[in-house]
Amino acid sequence: MDKYAKVYIRIKPSDRFSSETFNLLPDEKSLNVNIRKEKENGYIDNQVREWNFKTCGILHNASQNIVYEKCAAPLVSKYLDGYSCTLFAYGQTGSGKTYTITGSCHNFQQRGLVPRTISQLYKEINERHEQEIRVKISYLKIYKETVYDLLVPIKSESQVDELILTVNEHGETYVKGLSLHDAATEEIALSILFEGELNRRTRQFEKNENKSHYIFTILIKTRQIQTNSKFLISKFNFVDLAGSERIKKYPFETQSQTVKVNKSLSFFEQTVRALSERSRLHIPFRQTKLTHLLQDSLGGKFEIVMIGNIQGERENIEESLSTLRFACRVMKIPTQPVINFSVDPTYLCNQYKNEISLLKKELAAYDTLADKSDINYLSFTDSEINDIHQQVLKYISFDVEKINFVNLKQINEILVQFRDIVNQTEARVEKRLQEKYAPKEKKENCEKNIEPINTPEKGSLVGEKEANSFSIGRPGTFVKPAMSPAIVNLKKKNKKTKENAEGEHHLTPNPLLSSISVKMEPSIHNFIQDIPSSKNEAYETFKHKAGDALYKALIENKDCLSKIVCKERDISTVMNKSLQEIEQLNSNLKVLKDANEEIFQNGIVVLGEVQFDTLNKLHSLKKEYRSNYKHLQNLRVDKINLENVIKRCRQKLLNEFEFWYKESFGIAEQNSKDKKQTSCFSVNDDRGAYFEKAEKTLLMKSPESAAFYSARLQTDRRKLVEDINVRPTFEGRP
């Protein structure tokens, strides 16, 4: 029996929910939509105004926990058993897709499907003691048919690299260069998720967040500890699709982005329609990056769950109907989930080696029982190969009548020796024939071309017969060639120079050691003098020595903030002046209108020259005012971000100073007066201590939230370090 994709509809809670338009049936799986007929305007209206949609569940005013229990919780057990799953959210912009998939990264109770799935996943992994499970995570974004990795730190838009989709030898689509991060614990997995969410909302992406598709993938490899030759590979995709919207609802500046998003979703819908038709032979997966990447996820071998997010207000009825129609098409996609097995080649090689060794031992035992104990099944040694070669020679020369065959390996070696003997014999015969039947002219030419060998005047070479003596033989091939006397003298001279230099080195005293002994007492005296009399002086010393980098970063950020404040003040002055001029021009236009300066020609209003010039000037002033207002808004955002960076940088500087002061001097204040003087340097808002205190309170209510808040803290700490070490630049603003 064929299975089909499951679809759930989640209605966004609203105090303006139209109960007349959306009628929820008692079975909580059906939804009736009824559009009230407008007043008749003199024409016949036969449009369909009532629809009935049946799904797997209607989630109205449902909490995050209820949504998870119905939509995602049943998939986790199947996922660990080896089945791959895909869960995606579809709907218009602002209907709650991202809230459903990811939820809040700061509130444990409001976390979405991904954090809850991660928690349940690791809970079940810890209960499966007979399996070894490895978890890897990736997070990507598709914007304008460009794929980006959200788990790679982004410093600027120029450093954002586009990733490429490729197909492997098994026909599976994957992203080349996409980072995969190991997640051994729940805390690490949540930290990776929060890191991706942080990069998702950076300045480079914040303006197009709802115009992009996001895919969060959890990949696991499962193997049995006892028999680990095979392992399961399963994948869980969480897809947050871009918001579908009508173009007329967006301003002209963003209509091009809306067109591309609707185009991508339209191709996605075409793919879904093709998958739902059994007669279709071709599925257009490669029309977009999204469908190409989800080819294996939508192809029928995955468990598919869709959450359609709609809004219950009457003004959003058209978008809600579009989402409900798409949900009905998704419910027609047939699915036949299969378990993806794979074999570990390393384990197979080791298994084959053990099996071969066992078979050799069994064969040796069989030969022993059959009185064939001298048979060797291992590789032949050089002496054994030489013996076989001699046997073959004796067989060829008729010294023996036959060769005793022991096993197949010996037969192969005998054939090899036969081949070598035949090749050697052919080479010797050919050489003798060439020597015997070579032309005489060729021999004479060879003798003429031979030049006499220059021998030394004195018999000083090895093997040469000396005067009144005898030859000592020829040198072997391993003997080095004789060196000339000049080279020998040069080596002796270098050796003597080296020995003299070494002698001088031993005799010369080490200046470093002598300087240490001389400077030891002043350095100790200076150290005693360097101890500051108060913590304020120590802080001034720290700013210019150990904390120089942090202090410079703080000063640079303050300078940048002052520049932004000056720009903000200048732009505000210009805007106030423009606003006054606009008010003056509006009053002038009103006066001109009251003075009947308008001219009527054939029922058409013709403006006077003064009024026309005033309108043009008013239009240009309004355009300039909007531009300055947009620039001012950007500056205010930069100002807020920079103030946060300065606050964190100052906090980091104070923390480093406290640690440096304790490590360097270890001075404890004894009286309350010194404590009051240094109270300005104490860190009252220590984030670590605050977190520990808040953590204890939260753990009392929900102990399972420990990993969630710990991962949140680690992400905040990494963000703090990045903000301090990398000063943001605002020169690129218009």
Describe this structure in words.
It is a single chain. This protein has 734 residues and is an alpha+beta fold. It is elongated and about 140 Å long. Strand 3 and strand 4 form a beta hairpin. The two termini are 62 Å apart. It contains 21 helices and 19 strands. Helices cover 51% and strands 14% of the residues.
Q: Main beta sheet: strand number and arrangement?
A: 10 strands, mixed
What's the number of helices?
21
Cα-atom Rg, whole angstroms? 43 Å
Mean pLDDT: 76
What class do helices, strands and sheet pairing give?
A: alpha+beta
Q: Considering DSSP H and I runs of 4 or more, what fraction of the residues is helical? A: 40-55%
Gross morphology is: elongated
Low-confidence parts: 450-482, 501-529, 667-685, 726-734
Give the total of beta strands: 19
Strand content: 5-15%
C-alpha end-to-end distance: 62 Å
